[in-house]
Every structure is written in structure tokens, then in C-alpha cells.
């Protein structure tokens, strides 16, 4: 039974493989890397996980079942991905690929090149004239998650995501977290995660779990992952500042007064 489930999982991953339409070369600091990216019909550029890690980072790459991992020779840092997941983990950082999942193409594990570049702290530019992905060095590796993420922000963001969308797919969780961080960045809301969540202007909490107490429940694992993805730049539902349970949208202030963005899972999102 375990083997059947594993084969089914691999089949589902293969069904998500994008159609690749063209190839492009890759340079690092102006020098040819010998790498080639495959440009999907969607416009996303993919690169071989193994080739990138071995060429750019001289890393040791392994694959077991559906897990790919690259480890530095001295063991000081790592990158890991699961086939079919929309993110990589690099040094405890959660890097979102969105719709462009970690996938197999033939026998090659393919990752969006921008996600791989972020794992190595590389800037990315596209040169259409030479059909080249141009990488520029930063510090060499992604800052460790324990140093990059504010523990307080992870704590509260994971809890509001869990309370509002703990039963939703990962994309729905990321969308809820996006609304919180969009508000942090907006001049019309408080400028930190905690104050946005517990915002009580006009005598009412902006988010029901903050008043009901359900926000204090321990978040599930995926809600914590979604919080870290959001804090690392992941966004869904564009620049939405509001979300409402779909069944209550017509009775809500946002549903009546704000521009509709999209529906993800059981929530409507509004700009």
C-alpha cells in the first residue's frame, strides 16, 4: 500500500509539470555558468535543482522518494524541497514558488530559477536581447531563518492564519497572511503585525479571532509555514486589504464597499 501511495504521489506531481517552450542561458556576475534554464509557456524559467546547486554552490545533492536536498560540503547550510510543493526550504527560510511547483521533468527535478536564486541570495535579471538569465552575487546564501524572521511576527501571524483559515489550502492561508502584511505596509492601518491583528478602531476588532480568543489556539504546521512564506515575500490575492467568508460576503462591509479581487478557498478577498 505504501508503494502504491508513493507512486500515486509521483503521478500527481508529473501531472503538474509545465510545458516548456524555450531554453535560455545563465550567467553569474557576467560569466557563463554552463547552466540552461527552461522557459515554460507560462513565462516562468525553471532550472535543474542538481545542476544549479552543484554549479553555483558546489553542494552535495541527494534525492530520496519525493524529497530533494542539497547540503554544503561542510554541512553549514542546506536547501530542501518536496516534489509538488510550492516552496523550497533554505536554511530554515521558506521560499514561495506559488503556482510554479517543484516538479520532475524526465528524471530532472526542476525549480523556478528565481526561487533558486533567492536561496543563494542572488539577484536575477532577464536580458531579452541575449536570451540570458543574469545572476548577480549577494552574500552567497540565504540568511538563516532564525535570524531573518521576527519570532513575534511568526507567532502572531501563524495564529491569525490558523484561526481564520486553518482548514483552507496553503494558497488560502498565504492569502490571509498577505492581507495582514498588506495592512502593515498600508498607511491607513497599524504598522506592525500584532497591532494590525488586534486593531480595534471604531470599537470593534478587525478580526473576529482577536476578540473571540480563538487566535490563541496553537497553529497547525501549515499555518506556521504560510506565515514564514508571507514574511519571506509570498503574496496571494494581489494587494487585498480585506477578506470575508464567501457565504457572508453580501452582508459584509467589504463585500458592499470594496473592489472584489478573487475567491480563494472559502474566502472572498477585496482590495
Brief characterization of the structure:
This protein has 271 residues and is an alpha+beta fold. 33% of the residues lie in helices and 28% in strands. Helix 5 packs across helix 6 (170-185), helix 5 (151-165) packs across helix 9 and helix 6 crosses helix 9.
Query: Per the principal axes of the C-alpha atoms, what is the gross shape?
Result: elongated
Q: Structural class per helix/strand content? A: alpha+beta
Q: Which segments are poorly predicted (pLDDT under 50) over 5 or more consecutive residues?
A: 1-16
For the largest sheet, list the strands in their spatial order. Answer: 9-10-3-2-1-12-11
If you compute it from the alpha carbons, what radius of gyration comes out, rounded to the nearest whole angstrom? 20 Å
Helix content: 25-40%
Q: Approximately how much beta-strand content do the residues carry?
A: 25-35%
Oligomer: single chain
Major sheet: size, sense and barrel closure?
Answer: 7 strands, mixed
Number of distinct helices: 10
The total strand number stands at 15
SSE order in H/E notation?
HEEEHEEEEEEEHEEHHHHHHEHEE
> What number is the mean pLDDT?
88
What is the rounded distance between the termini? Answer: 46 Å
